[in-house]
Design a protein that fits this description.
5 helices; homodimer; elongated; DNA-binding; alpha+beta
Chain lengths: ~110, ~110
DNA sequence: CTAACGTACAACCATATGGTTGTAGATGAG
DNA sequence: CTCATCTACAACCATATGGTTGTACGTTAG
């Protein structure tokens, strides 16, 4: 998977309020898929799909405990998203830097 | 528009590589829609749609100059996304804090 | 004025998305 | 063992998404 593809998955996963809430919950502590499903006004299968989207984006991990699947948040992936945004910001800073360079540059050609 | 709806729009807008690249470009400097369209292997109308998605999410602004529409990036919206992620991370930190509290808490009930 | 350019927008299409219900397989409780 | 619980997964549906082409309109260059 390319970096762009993974980035697509990350942002797409976070573009839904239910999924963001699930991430919030499982960063606070462990929850089974059923635990999560009880919280939202939709079917178990729907929540299952949301969890699958988050898993594909590496925002959560699932592991079995008895008959339950325990969901945990992966804080490092949330931070990856932060880093991706910083890369966008960096371009903005570079632009500002260049703009500043012009202002602070040698007075060539000014006043003719 | 609710906060969640705006957050949906922000993350959705950033979930596409072409759109992220457009944001990167227009944070560096101004570009007309045609300028942008020339860069990508898709029709002008397709790029136009991407720009519209970014505009709806407030990640860019458009203003007319002659017959061109100039696109500029809105760095503050990129930072809004950063802030939203920090809110998710905050829940994680709270969890760690509580975990630390337990470790550092009064030795009640221990050793019977 | 006229032609070329930049843009907007509608119509259309294939596929993805987010939801549903239903079925079936593991697993734990009693 | 038997039953209830938790999960997985398929099939289905309505709508959203990302692309296309075509048409129309404002603006500038010559």
């Amino acid at each position: 998977m390319t970096k762009a593809e993974r980035t697509d998955l990350l942002f797409h996963a976070l573009s839904d309020a239910t999924r963001r809430d699930i991430v919030r919950l499982v960063l606070q502590g462990e929850h089974s898929v059923s635990d999560l499903a009880r919280r939202y006004p939709m079917s178990f299968a729907a929540v299952q799909k949301h969890v699958a989207v988050l898993e594909r984006a590496d925002l959560i991990t699932k592991h079995q405990r008895g008959r339950e699947r325990i969901v945990r948040g992966r804080i490092d992936s949330v931070r990856d998203v932060n880093r991706l945004l910083d890369e966008l910001e960096a371009n903005w800073r570079n632009r500002i830097q260049r703009f500043g360079d012009v202002l602070a540059g040698p007075d060539e050609g000014e006043h003719s």
